Amino acid sequence: MVNASLAYEILLYINSFYFGLFATCELGTLILKSVLIIEKYGVDNDPTKLIQDYGVLLGLFVIEAIRLTLGRRGSLIERDVPVMFSVLLTIPSMMSVLYLLIWQVVVLRIEYIWCSLMLCLQMVEFVYAVMFVVTMFKEPTYD
């Protein structure tokens, strides 16, 4: 059987580095789009979509940071409550990444790659987090 705690901790460790890279690149790309590309598409008359993109990105940064912190803390001390909150925060985090992938004002090809990798990593983390929580509730066997 797979050690869900170890796999979940490794995935959280990898995601903590990837999230820093993802956040930096996505913020830089959004700033670039707001300065250069938006003029080409004529969205500068209606800045609410651009403000919405910044809001979703800021929300993603906060939710993902809290999710990673709770997941790492819960995995290290082997408590199920922080990990369950981390699992619950995975859903709005995935919805934010889907927004950046599909419904953003302008989506660049490189963003498809970044957001797809982030979604794949979050889905695998979600599966291992659920497995970890399930194993926390099982009674220990001493065979």
Automatic annotation (TrEMBL):
Residues spanning the membrane: 12-38, 50-70, 82-106, 112-137
Keywords, sorted A to Z: Membrane, Transmembrane, Transmembrane helix
Main location: membrane
Subcellular location: Membrane
Keyword Nuclease among UniProt keywords: no
Protein's membrane topology: Multi-pass membrane protein
Record flagged with keyword Lipid biosynthesis: no
Any single GO CC term annotated in Swiss-Prot or TrEMBL for this entry: membrane
Superkingdom, natural source: Eukaryota
Record PANTHER family: GEO07735P1-RELATED (PTHR13531:SF0), GEO07735P1-RELATED-RELATED (PTHR13531)
Protein name: Transmembrane protein 216
Organism: Loxostege sticticalis
